[in-house]
Specification:
Thioredoxin_ResA/DsbE_sf, antioxidant activity, Thioredoxin domain-containing protein, Glutaredoxin, Thioredoxin-like_sf, alpha/beta, two-stranded antiparallel sheet, membrane
Length: 243
Amino acid sequence: MRGHTACVCGVYDGGRYREYGILPSIVGASRQSDCAMPYAESMLRRQRIAMVAALVITVATTAWALNRELTRTEEPIQGLRRDSRIAACLNPSGGPVSGGLPSVELPCMGAAGPATITLSSYAEAKPMLISLWASYCQYCRQELQAIDAFRQQQRNGVHVLTVLTADNETSAQLMIDVAPDLPVSFDREGQLLDKLRVAKALPVVVVVRPGGTVAKTYQGTPLTSVDQVSELGRVFKGSQPLE
């Protein structure tokens, strides 16, 4: 039979040799192979510890970033950064009217014009379209472009206001590329959507007659062409769509 001897097993850790214990060893076998099993187990344990530590760091970093984002978006309205590249909101020239827009006060994201507007104060001589949108809305950009094209076709015969709804204030900058001539107001909590009593879905278009009464609140197939917007605008002039 082959003889046995003892093998002291260990690994180097930080420049120091750490022993795991004394194991029986077959005479003639290499000490490295005799100690391979406890060494492999040690390395596996170390890898598991490293993976757990990395996971903890990742979770902590993600939680910190999320908390920072939530804290940032909870800044007071007066802390909003208004952008000179965004069109100015229209100054309301009327007052509350029966059957008019809800009494909702919103900040404007354009640097020029009023800092805030109260929707119930809009009672303009021209008809008005109010478009509720958000950066996460798949069809909103197409609808905004169609509304802007309709506004240009009308030679500014219709007012347009867009409302960035339940979104982050920085998303207002998207309008610079989508439809730079459309003003943007900001409804962080989606309060207008609540007061319109429609489904919590975007886009939404509110059609306002001259004088300030609400003719229609449209929420359905997105308007992607000037013709579709014009068809919606038939409520401006009786049963005839705007030309």
